[in-house]
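Table S7 (text form). Paired inputs.
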Amino acid sequence: MDRIEKSILNRKKALELQKAWGVVAQQVRYRETGDWYSSLSRFPAALFDANGYVLFATQEDYRNSPHISIGKQISVRKPGISAIPDYVRVADSQALFSLDVDIHTVEATEGRRRLVLHLQRERNQTVIRSKKKLAASLDCEVCGFSFSRTYGSAASDYCEVHHLKPLSDVEDTAQTRIEDLAILCANCHRVVHLAIPPFTLNQVKSMLAK
């Protein structure tokens, strides 16, 4: 495989991982070994290797990073970007929970601007509140579980809200309608996101029926 073919495959792989892992970035680069990349010019921007990624929220973060050397290309000391403190490891991409609205247990180091930027972009609390307010009930649309009946008044207003169309499929921004959202319990919400793309609600209902 020549250099041009390899470059094309790396660009394609970067876009595939960005979509699969729900990374919000204007520019993405991929290198399996994570040791060197083409330079970045649009931000936020992400560098991927075979197991995870590093996101630079701003050009300043990128330029001032002590972990990379920037010239015509980006050089990263071995073992590569996996040694950078802000590296996000995705050990099993098939089991990754796509980031979605009202998923509360995203695992990450608290305070990273990378994750905050990502969640701010995806979440729209206005439409979430409207969905909860207008719903006939907050019972799970898959299994019927009710936080209110199970836990009482302390959880009377609680549920999780799921995007029926994965936000990672949206190229830039999109209008979300009330009917594009579903009320789920925490268990069903996690099961929906066990697959990429996510399972449909009917598929999860079929699992329960068995």
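Next pair, protein 2 of 2.
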Amino acid sequence: MLPVLREGVTENMNRDVVIDIQGIEKTYNLGAVTVRALRGVDLTVERGSYIAIMGPSGSGKSTLLNILGCLDPPTAGMYALNGQDVSGLDDDEVSAIRGQYLGFIFQSYNLIAQLTVLENIQVPLFYQGKDLESYRDHCLAMAEMVGLGDRLDHRPMQLSGGQQQRVAIARSLVNDPVLILADEPTGNLDSKTGVDVLDIITRLNESGKTIVLVTHDDHVAERAHRVLHMKDGAIDREIVNRRPEKEAAA
């Protein structure tokens, strides 16, 4: 069951806004050293957007992605996800939010080696306590969508890197998330396979999914609607890419 809005948080947040963060800070205390990984970040992302986050190592892009994914709480500031303030929820409440709203695609795929393709796709449903058999057809459809309908019984070690990333994409979609977070999704792939994976992500965005992607590759970022460049824990600048003609005319 999802948590209710906390006192002081209104119900009339804009439902067309998936991400609304205000003054987000993240500080790590490493013994005698204090590291300010994020310094007052503000960001609004509308439903159906495609956002790329770039920046040098240590700029805060991965920290920001972890906070957006409710994997790491902010030290200060407000984060509303799909109209729900998640800034200070407890672990159980945050887990429910992740299962309801979020899908993840990682550079290293993060598949479970002992499970088959189908079983890996089912993992988010398992953690939500769903009856897996009743969702079998849905999971089969996800596998078919990413071109792995004939690999259902294969395990990760029997798949290429591109195929493993396709499994990860199918897994990210199985709970019909409002937001998909991708961390260097083509980082371990050759250029051709990377393009194939990016094509899938682009089609997902064209179908209405909101995408936030971290990358160091300009060719990956140029597919996004907005490119955020981070520096020293803050958004240093933003580039708005021209959308394709068919999208601009919609």
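Confidence is low (pLDDT under 50) at residues 1-12, 244-250.
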